[in-house]
């Protein structure tokens, strides 16, 4: 192996360093936004209460075409039916008007008589929420590990192989959870809208939640793509020390000077001859 000074080594591997730390930063972003997804709708605090997958407006659950609809809606509210429900990953929040009064475990204690298709959709949400939670938790854990392990790929190209697998699993788990959440709640909103003739429920998708979900997924995917590219691109420290992928002439000359390698001026045929200076 060739002895190369630290400044020359950093110069020769600066591209790999840049992409490795960029990938690590992207996984940091993924972890941060996944945490926001995990804690959304867990508390009545203003920021957390705005992070939800879907909001159900039941303030006028009885259509206006029904006789005495206003009276029936008022009675339903007196009996404990809240004006709205917001569904998060772990639970849901409920309230009256624009004020959240309580947050509970997802669908705990829900005893409203709803159409069969709506009830089936609610059951699907409860089941899928466990899968989403597991995938988001797995993605966040693997992304957190990737933050600290990805820079190891600077040392040697061999480290990129297991790190590519690790980052792929992190990106896959986060993206799969994002796809499940998006598809499920869009379908549920359609089911609610199709049932407007029976019950007057308005369903709105949470913009903030899905923005966080896809920022986390997109960051993880981009971080994995960069790590995958490093398997064959950008020289590592080991490549430089072993003389492979030395790259441009100016970088090679820096390494040559550090290793005591000199160049002789061009000969008759225009070729440069190189030898290692005699240290003795």
Plain-language structure description:
The structure is a single chain. α1 (6-12) packs antiparallel against α9, α5 (116-149) packs antiparallel against α6 and α6 runs antiparallel to α7 (207-229). This protein is elongated. The chain contains nine helices and seven strands. With 280 residues, it is α+β, with helices and mostly antiparallel strands. It starts with 5 loop residues before the first helix and ends with a strand. The protein has helices at 6-12, 14-39, 46-49, 69-78, 116-149, 160-194, 207-229, 237-241, 249-259, and strands spanning 54-57, 84-87, 91-96, 99-105, 202-205, 261-264, 273-276. The strands form two sheets. Strands 4-3-2-1-5 form a five-stranded antiparallel sheet, with helices on one face. Mean pLDDT is 76; it is low at 247-280.
Low-confidence stretches: 247-280
Helix content: 55-70%
Strand order of the largest sheet: 4-3-2-1-5
The structure class reads: alpha+beta
Mean pLDDT: 76
Strand content: 5-15%
Secondary structure: number of strands:
7
Tally the helices: 9
The biggest sheet, with number of strands, parallel, antiparallel or mixed sense and barrel status, is: 5 strands, antiparallel
- Terminal Cα span: 20 Å
Q: What is the radius of gyration computed over CA atoms, rounded to a whole number of angstroms?
A: 29 Å
Instruction: Please provide the ordered H/E string of secondary-structure elements.
Output: HHHEHEEEHHEHHHEE
């Amino acid at each position: 192996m060739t002895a190369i000074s630290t400044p020359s080594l950093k110069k020769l591997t600066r591209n790999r360093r840049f992409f490795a730390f960029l990938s690590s930063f992207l996984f940091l972003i993924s972890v941060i936004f996944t945490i926001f997804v995990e804690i959304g709708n867990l508390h009545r605090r203003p920021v957390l209460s705005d992070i939800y997958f879907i909001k159900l407006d039941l303030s006028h659950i009885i259509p206006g075409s029904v006789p005495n609809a206003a009276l029936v809606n008022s009675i339903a509210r007196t009996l404990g039916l809240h004006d709205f429900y917001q569904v998060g990953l772990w639970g849901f929040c409920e309230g009256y008007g624009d004020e959240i009064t309580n947050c509970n475990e997802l669908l705990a204690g829900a005893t409203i008589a709803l159409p069969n298709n709506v009830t089936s959709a609610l059951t699907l949400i409860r089941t899928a929420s466990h899968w989403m939670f597991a995938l988001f938790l797995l993605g966040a854990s693997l992304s957190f590990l990737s933050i600290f392990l990805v820079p190891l790929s600077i040392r040697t190209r061999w480290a990129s192989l297991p790190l590519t697998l690790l980052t792929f699993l992190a990106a896959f788990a986060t993206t799969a959870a994002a796809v499940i959440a998006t598809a499920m709640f869009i379908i549920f909103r359609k089911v609610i809208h199709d049932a407007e003739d029976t019950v007057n429920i308005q369903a709105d998708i949470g913009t903030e939640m899905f923005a966080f979900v896809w920022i986390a997924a997109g960051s993880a995917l981009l971080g994995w793509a960069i790590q995958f590219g490093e398997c064959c691109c950008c020289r590592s420290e080991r490549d430089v020390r072993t003389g492979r992928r030395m790259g441009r002439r100016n970088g090679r000359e820096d390494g040559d000077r550090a290793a005591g390698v000199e160049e002789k001026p061009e000969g008759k045929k225009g070729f440069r001859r190189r030898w290692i200076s005699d240290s003795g």
